[in-house]
Structures are given as C-alpha cells and as structure tokens.
Amino acid sequence: MSEIICFEGKVFLVFLLHGAFLLLCSDFLRSWRIAVPHGVWWIGAEDVCFWFAAGIWTFVLIFVYQDGILRLYMAAAMALGMGVYRRTLSPWVVRGVSGVLLLILRLLGCIKHVISRLFLKIDIIRQKAIAKLVEKE
Fold first, then answer.
1. Which long-range CB contacts under 8 A does 31-37 form with residues at least 24 apart?
2. Residue 71 in 3-state DSSP?
3. CA R_g for the chain
4. 26 and 86 Cβ atoms separated by less than 8 Å
5. Most buried in the list 5, 66, 103, 107, measured by CB within 10 Å?
C-alpha cells in the first residue's frame, strides 16, 4: 500500500479514538453530575469549559496531523467513534463511575459523621474538666 494511504489510515484511527475519548470524558462529567446534583448555571459552565477544551484539543490534532486542514474522513471518524462508544460502553461507564462516586461520597459522609461525633465527645470531656476546675476554686 502507498505510504500516504497508510498515513491516512492511521489518522482515521486517531480520530476514531479521539471521538470515543471525548465522549468518555463527557460520561465522566455526566457521572459527576449524577453523584453531585448541580444547578442549571453550573452545568452550563461545566459544558462550556469542557467543549471549549475539546475544541482546542481537536484543533491541535487537526493541526498536527493535517496542518490545520479538516478532512471529511477525520470528521466521519470522530462521529463513528462517538457513535460506537455511545452505543456500546457509555451506559456501563456512566453507571459504574457514578456508582463509585456515590460510594466515595457516602464514605466521606460517614467519616465526617464519625469525626464530628469524636469532637463532640472531646468537647463534652473538656466542659466537664473545666466545670470541675471551677468547683475547686
């Protein structure tokens, strides 16, 4: 095969993976929103930042591989990568990551509860010690 065709095939695979990876990152963002409820403005700000960074990253890839010239097969590869990822792995990734995040948040809540109870006990002991000192005087 021609060297140019081999290079174009590699570029196609890079953009196929790029599209899938963009949606993987988007699924992590979705999982975060499931685990931690967000307001409309916060979701909008997250989306703008994410897609701005994704656009810059896509532009850099286009610039590196094709000197800034967007080719139709690169856009098709990204769309294909996104579609295949969305139909195959996306539901499992969202469920799994959001489940792990919810578990971590619950554990942090339990740790916070234990620590606050510990400080409450320490405060009660401190207050009793101060009361005894005041009685002795």
1. 31/93, 31/94, 31/97, 31/98, 31/101, 32/98, 32/101, 34/94, 34/98, 34/101, 34/102, 35/98, 35/101, 35/102, 35/105, 36/101, 36/105
2. coil
3. 26
4. no
5. 66
> Which has more pLDDT, 84 or 119?
84
Tell me how far apart the alpha carbons of residues 17 and 123 are, in angstroms, rounded to a whole number: 56
* Matching residue, tokens 């769309």: 79
Q: CA 38 to CA 127: how far, in whole Å?
A: 41
pTM of the model: 0.74
Whether 137 shows a pLDDT value over 70: the answer reads: no
Spatial distance between the Cα atoms of 60 and 31, rounded to a whole number of angstroms: 27
Q: How far is CA 26 from CA 16, 42, 54, 69, in A?
A: 16, 15, 10, 26
